[in-house]
Amino acid sequence: MRSGAADKRYSLAINIMSLSDFELEQAKWRNLVGGFILAFGDVEVITHRLWRDHCKGKAPLFKPRVEALLTALNKLEPKNDAIISCLEAAYRLVEKRNTIAHNPTQRKLKYFSMDVLESY
């Protein structure tokens, strides 16, 4: 039979193993979500370049920017169907991207974490 201290050490070892599994699961999702956001950043850069080449004035936010780009690109002859198709796909994903990138729960956790760190 283990002493109270030994039970606590055993319990801590199990929690550390569980935490490690938890961290592995979190890392998987962090990489997937982070990769999604980074890829969307690449799409943002591409749309700004396309805006510079095909539209005038200051580029608006993503959704109206893509709408205007699709209008401009569809008027071109010959059409670049591959770019148009990719922009249409990005346009369909923008709400999902915004939900992830501007997640109010994540912002709340970030501020909570900063408050906790500042209290030490």
For the record, give the distance between the C-alpha atoms at the N and C termini, rounded to a whole number: 39 Å
Classify the helix fraction into a percent range.
over 70%
Structural class category: mainly alpha
Tell me the Rg in angstroms: 24 Å
Largest sheet: none
- Strand percentage lies at under 5%
Low-pLDDT residue spans? none
Mean pLDDT: 80
List SSEs in N-to-C order.
HHHH
Shape: elongated
* Individual helix count: 4
What does this structure look like?
The protein has 4 helices and no strands. With 120 residues, it is mostly helical.
Summary keywords:
elongated; 120 residues; single chain; mainly alpha
Short description:
The protein has 120 residues and is mainly α. 84% of the residues lie in helices and 0% in strands. The mean pLDDT is 80.
Detail the topology: elements first, then pairings.
Layout: H1 4-54, H2 62-75, H3 81-101, H4 104-118
Helix pairs in contact: 1-2, 1-3, 2-3
